[in-house]
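stage 2 :: seqdesign
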């Protein structure tokens, strides 16, 4: 069927809606912001190989429904649905019924996914769809590395949009040029003028973009094994902002706190309106080891960093999300299953942390119900489970949330998205319906099907697919 995620209920018919050079989408006034319309126009053009021009018409005769047809729709139509959206494709056009802005977006993208190309015309199979998600907070964590092109980032966002994710956590690994301190970033980092169109693209696909900045470990904005540091390899005079090895921030330095506050505000402005901010806070191996920080109690410094940062994020009208790997007593878990617990006693501060913080519980080898996530939930925290590469791990994470009413799921991708693009499709499906369809090959094919339409390569080999190359270098 190639609608992702697979709808919870649908019927297929042996009839087709044929069209060629024009589609008219009539929708109620105020359904979506006007700046989203060019995104939908571009997608319809891409999915029809440029044959079809989409025209969007606003009508005050419609409520709760939109119509896709070859001729203008001028009648009155008011509909209601108990689902997030319904999609009804007939030989004379399609009717979209929806409960709000996101419902319209998901109904429209589902229709777009049905489009097929024939010689001289396009068609969509007659279909009835009734659809709603099982899990409301469905997020992907996307990292922007030096090797991440803007085109690939747009493809990744498009895949999240087609898979109906609700949120993207956007983490720049030295690749956003902060106006408040350009020295934090690599010299060829992306500017706000380059990133904001991608944020608009995500918003138009029904996705809220969550800004992320590590406030403890990973302060280098680089992988620990590689040894690159986006700030200290750019401007070594920034060294007082970090612990001696550069891996963690020096949180006892007031200049560090002032800079982090400025960065938070800049990232919020970059990513647009939203409810959340991700502060990272994992793997703080050498926190509080510099001459300035070692004067203080390490756990007190860590607790104060979380509480003070959370207070500031709260003042911005957002909620803090933080990784929870240091918030567990490792002696109470089977470390062969829960391999991602990195703390060394920091869990004792958990009792003093504000309960409006959302705990992001990442476990990458666990294929059972996440006991760690249930524990955090019992402690009074809204909790999201965070899987990675393994399909069984994704299954366990999504089922933990669905069966226990937890807050949501964040599918992490890190540096492996280029080889694991199918996980975005598979995890999106599991978050939506808990019913996974197909294995790696099927989801790779689904991903390729949509990526070449959402962001065409126009014959450029390096921009096609998910990697610049098909084989490793032969030399």
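stage 2 :: out
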């Amino acid at each position: 069927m190639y609608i992702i995620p697979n709808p919870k209920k649908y019927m297929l018919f042996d009839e087709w809606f044929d069209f060629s050079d024009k589609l008219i989408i009539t929708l109620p006034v105020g359904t979506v912001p006007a700046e989203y319309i060019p995104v939908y126009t571009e997608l319809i053009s891409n999915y029809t190989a440029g044959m079809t021009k989409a025209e969007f018409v606003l009508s005050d005769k419609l409520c709760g429904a939109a119509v896709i047809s070859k001729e203008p729709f001028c009648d009155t139509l008011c509909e209601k649905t108990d689902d997030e959206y319904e999609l009804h494709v007939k030989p004379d056009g399609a009717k979209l019924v929806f409960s709000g802005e996101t419902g319209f977006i998901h109904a429209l993208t589902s229709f777009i996914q049905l489009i097929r190309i024939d010689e001289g015309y396009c068609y969509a199979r007659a279909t009835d769809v009734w659809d709603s998600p099982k899990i409301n907070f469905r997020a992907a964590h996307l990292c922007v590395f030096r090797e991440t092109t803007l085109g690939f980032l747009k493809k990744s966002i498009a895949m999240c949009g087609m898979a109906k994710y609700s949120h993207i956590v956007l983490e720049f690994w030295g690749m956003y040029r902060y106006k408040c301190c350009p020295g934090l970033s690599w010299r060829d980092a992306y500017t706000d003028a380059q990133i904001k169109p991608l944020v608009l693209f995500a918003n138009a696909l029904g996705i809220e973009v969550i800004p992320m900045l590590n406030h403890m470990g990973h302060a280098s904005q680089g992988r620990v094994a590689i040894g690159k540091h986006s700030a200290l390899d750019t401007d070594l005079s920034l060294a007082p902002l970090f612990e001696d090895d550069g891996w963690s921030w020096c949180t006892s330095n007031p200049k560090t706190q002032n800079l982090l506050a400025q960065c938070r505000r800049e990232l919020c402005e970059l990513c647009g309106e939203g409810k959340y901010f991700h502060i990272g806070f994992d793997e703080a191996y050498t926190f509080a080891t510099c001459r300035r920080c070692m004067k203080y109690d390490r756990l007190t410094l860590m607790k104060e960093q979380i509480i003070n940062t959370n207070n500031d994020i709260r003042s911005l009208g957002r909620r803090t999300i933080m990784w929870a790997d240091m918030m567990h007593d490792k002696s109470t878990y089977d470390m062969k299953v829960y391999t991602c617990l990195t703390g060394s006693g920091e869990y004792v501060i958990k009792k003093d942390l504000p309960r409006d913080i959302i705990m992001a519980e990442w476990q990458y080898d666990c294929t059972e119900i996440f006991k760690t996530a249930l524990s955090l939930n019992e402690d009074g925290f809204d909790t999201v489970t965070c899987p990675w590469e393994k399909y069984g791990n994704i299954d366990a994470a999504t089922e933990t949330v669905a069966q226990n009413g937890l807050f949501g799921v964040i599918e992490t991708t890190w540096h492996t998205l280029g080889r694991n693009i199918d996980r975005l499709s598979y995890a999106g499906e599991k978050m939506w319906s808990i019913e996974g369809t197909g294995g790696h090959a099927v989801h790779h094919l689904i991903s390729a099907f949509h990526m070449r339409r959402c962001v065409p390569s126009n014959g450029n080999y390096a921009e096609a697919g998910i990697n610049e190359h098909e084989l490793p270098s032969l030399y």
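stage 3 :: structure notes
- Residues 9-131 form a domain with the Chitobiase; domain 2 fold (CATH 3.30.379.10).
- The two ends are 42 Å apart (CA to CA).
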